[in-house]
Write a sequence for this structure.
C-alpha cells in the first residue's frame, strides 16, 4: 500500500463527512464500496483500519472524527464550521472533492473541463505533508526554470502555499540557511529523511505571507497602492479580491497595502485597460512603459 494511496484514503474519509455530514459505519462502508480509490472493491473498511484512519487524520491534519452514540453511532467532524470558514484545509478538501467527483463520474468527464495541475505536484504532496507533520528534513532533487541543471540538497519544510495551479513548499535550505519557495512540480525527486529539525517558534505561515500576492517573495517594503477599475472589472474585484487588504474607498477605487511583487504586477497587467494604477507613481510609470513595449513589439511584426 503506497503512501499516496493512504493519504488519498484519509482525505476521502474527511471529504465524505465534510460533504455528507454525520454517517454511521454502515453508510461509510457503502460509500467506500463505490469509491473510485477502492481498487480491490472491498465491501467495507475493516474496523481496525478505520480506527487507524481516524487517528492518522487527527495527527496529519488536526481534524478529529468523533462518534455520536446518542444519534445512532454516527461519525462526524469536530469543529466543521471552523474548517469551512478557514482557508487552507477548506481549499485542500475542495480540490480533493472535485478530483474524487470526477473519478466517480467517468461517463461525463469529457464534458467537464478544468485547468491542468502539474502531475508532479500531486505526486510529491503526500511526502511533503508527511515531512511537515513530523518536522522531517526533505532530501530533494530540484531544477527550476532558470537552472541549467538539477541540484540535490536537504531542506527544512516550513509550510505549503498554493498559487495559480501550483503547490509550493516554503523551506530553509540546510547547506546555506536560505529560505525560499520550491515548486513541487519542479522536484525531480523527494524523500523524507529520518533527520528532524526545529521549526522556529515565532514562525506563522499566514503572517509570513500576509503582505504578498502570489508566490514570489521579494525583499521590498510594503506600499500603499491605489487602483481604479471600470464597472466590469470592479464586479470581479469585489467578488474575488486580489488581497485581503483590499478596500474599495469609493466606487471603482481599490486600495491595497502590500509588497508590489512581480506576481501582483502580472495580475494587474492581465486586466489590461480595465484598471489603472494611480499610486505609487513609479508603478504606474513602469506598467505604462511595459505596455508601450508591447505596442512596439507588435509594430515590429510588420
Amino acid at each position: 500500500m503506497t503512501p499516496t494511496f493512504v493519504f488519498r484514503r484519509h482525505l476521502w474519509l474527511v471529504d465524505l463527512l465534510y460533504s455528507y455530514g454525520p454517517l454511521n459505519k454502515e453508510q461509510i462502508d457503502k460509500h467506500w464500496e463505490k469509491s473510485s480509490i477502492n481498487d480491490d472493491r472491498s465491501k467495507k473498511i475493516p474496523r481496525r483500519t478505520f480506527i487507524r484512519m481516524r487517528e492518522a487524520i487527527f495527527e496529519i491534519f488536526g481534524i478529529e472524527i468523533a462518534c455520536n452514540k446518542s444519534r445512532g453511532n454516527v461519525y462526524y467532524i469536530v469543529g466543521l464550521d471552523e474548517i469551512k470558514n478557514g482557508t487552507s484545509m477548506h481549499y485542500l478538501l475542495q480540490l480533493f472533492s472535485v478530483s474524487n467527483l470526477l473519478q466517480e463520474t467517468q461517463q461525463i468527464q469529457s464534458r467537464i473541463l478544468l485547468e491542468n495541475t502539474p502531475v508532479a505536484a500531486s505526486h510529491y504532496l503526500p511526502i511533503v505533508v508527511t515531512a511537515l507533520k513530523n518536522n522531517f528534513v526533505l532530501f530533494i532533487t530540484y531544477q527550476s526554470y532558470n537552472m541549467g541543471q538539477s541540484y540535490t540538497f536537504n531542506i527544512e519544510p516550513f509550510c505549503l502555499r498554493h498559487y495559480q495551479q501550483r503547490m509550493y513548499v516554503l523551506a530553509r535550505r540546510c547547506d546555506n540557511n536560505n529560505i525560499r519557495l520550491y515548486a513541487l512540480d519542479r522536484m525531480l525527486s523527494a524523500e523524507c529523511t529520518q533527520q528532524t529539525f526545529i521549526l522556529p517558534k515565532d514562525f506563522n505561515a499566514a503572517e509570513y505571507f500576509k503582505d504578498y500576492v502570489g508566490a514570489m517573495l521579494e525583499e521590498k517594503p510594503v506600499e500603499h497602492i491605489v487602483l481604479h477599475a471600470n464597472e466590469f472589472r470592479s464586479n470581479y474585484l469585489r467578488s474575488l479580491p486580489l488581497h485581503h487588504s483590499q478596500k474599495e474607498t469609493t466606487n471603482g477605487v481599490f486600495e491595497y497595502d502590500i509588497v508590489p511583487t512581480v506576481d501582483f504586477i502580472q495580475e494587474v497587467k492581465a486586466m489590461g485597460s480595465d484598471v489603472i494604477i494611480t499610486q505609487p507613481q513609479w508603478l504606474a510609470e513602469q506598467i505604462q512603459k511595459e505596455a508601450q513595449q508591447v505596442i512596439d513589439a507588435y509594430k515590429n511584426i510588420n
About this structure: Residues 1 and 79 are 30 Å apart (CA to CA). The longest strand covers residues 151-163. The mean pLDDT is 86.
